[in-house]
Amino acid sequence: MMFLNGEGLEVDLIVVNDDSDDRQINTLYGFRKTNFMTDLKNEITIGSLPWADISLNNYDCLIIPGNLNQDQPNLHELVDDEEVIEEIKEFAQQKDKIIASICLGALVLGKADLVKGKNITGNPLVKSHELLKDSNFNPNESVVVDGNLIAAKTVAQTPEWTFRIIEELFGQEKRVEIAKKIGF
């Protein structure tokens, strides 16, 4: 995702909860469209913002990462964070806003009631999870786009998923241009 900075997007890492005692940090990524730059930046940076300092309304796309690392159970805490879930619901209701999830991030979409009747994918481990029961969950699909939701099965699909996000935000021509620049 870092290569998107300077390619028409500003990327912020949004720290939802930083509990330094438990070393668990819940994160989301927010994308804002900017003017396109003609050359890739030599130095890529990502802004890190605390939850209290942001408004999701300022973003065009919200990325919900998944996490299978048992030492960092941040995804489960994110699912249980009612304030964050409400903000995600409100974000999803806005016109021209995209929400993208990967792997177990599909559970956050389910908790926010965004998957009812929607085609979605994610890690096959959550196929029958209660939060996804009203979705058309297909663990065999790599990347699925349904309305403003873009879902990827696992981290292995990150390139395809990222290029679908770019295409939804900027169109196929820009997706092809960026893919060529990074040799994909």
Description:
This protein is an alpha/beta fold and 184 residues long. The protein has one domain (2-181): 3-Layer(aba) Sandwich (Rossmann fold). Helices cover 25% and strands 25% of the residues. It has five helices and nine strands, in the order E-E-E-E-H-H-E-H-E-E-E-E-H-H. The protein has helices spanning 74-79, 82-92, 106-111, 158-170, 172-181, and strands at 9-19, 24-33, 47-50, 61-64, 98-102, 119-120, 136-137, 143-146, 149-152. The strands form two sheets. Strands 3-1-2-4-5-9-8 form a seven-stranded mixed sheet, with helices on both faces. Strands 6-7 form a two-stranded parallel ribbon. Strand 1 and strand 2 form a beta hairpin. Helix 4 (158-170) crosses helix 5. The longest helix is centred in the C-terminal third of the chain and has 13 residues, at 158-170.
The proportion of residues in beta strands is 25-35%
Secondary structure class reads alpha/beta
Runs in which pLDDT lies below 50 for 5 or more consecutive residues are 20-27, 34-46
Distance between the termini: 14 Å
Q: Over all CA atoms, what is the radius of gyration?
A: 16 Å
**CATH architecture assignment name:** 3-Layer(aba) Sandwich
Quick one: how many beta strands? 9
